[in-house]
Amino acid sequence: MVSYGSMLGIAFGGFTWVVVAGNLIHEPVVSLAGALLGVGVWIVGGRALLRYPARRGLVMGIAVLFVVFADWAFLGIVLPRIPEGGSIYVGTSRSAYAALHPILIVAGLAGTGLVLWDLLFRRP
Question: Which of 2, 7, 37, 43 is CA-nearest to residue 22?
């Protein structure tokens, strides 16, 4: 249960904005793709954690890196198409989505750190 819960957190946190942004730009394909990728990360990541419980850091790091790369791709598609104006607090302005850049950089560093930690400092 904890494995699926932790992967649900990664998937929900990583792809909720994609679904909202797809609705904002009136592209249901973007929203559907974000939702399907979130479900995929949840299921595949949870199963990987159950299969490799001793490699939690590696599995979590790979999941985080996948979400970061997918989010960068979605951000490249969505950001130019968001209309001017809106509210940064509600998440309907271009600057609200531009604020994701530093978050993705930090998440990418954290995911890389988890993978390296597991690979370099794993006890036999």
Answer: 37
**How many domains does one find in the chain?**
1
CB of 80 closer than 8 Å to CB of 25? no
Q: What is the mean pLDDT of residues 7-24?
A: 89
One-letter amino acid at 33 equals: A
Residue 9, φ and ψ in degrees, nearest 5: -65, -40
Report the 3 state secondary structure along the chain: CHHHHHHHHHHHHHHHHHHHHHHHCCCHHHHHHHHHHHHHHHHHHHHHHHHCHHHHHHHHHHHHHHHHHHHHHHHHHHHHHCCCCCCCCCCCCHHHHHCHHHHHHHHHHHHHHHHHHHHHHCCC
Range of the domain at 70: 2-121
Q: Average pLDDT of 67-86?
A: 89
pLDDT tens readout for residues 86-108: 766 666 778 888 888 999 999 99
pTM for the complete prediction?
0.88
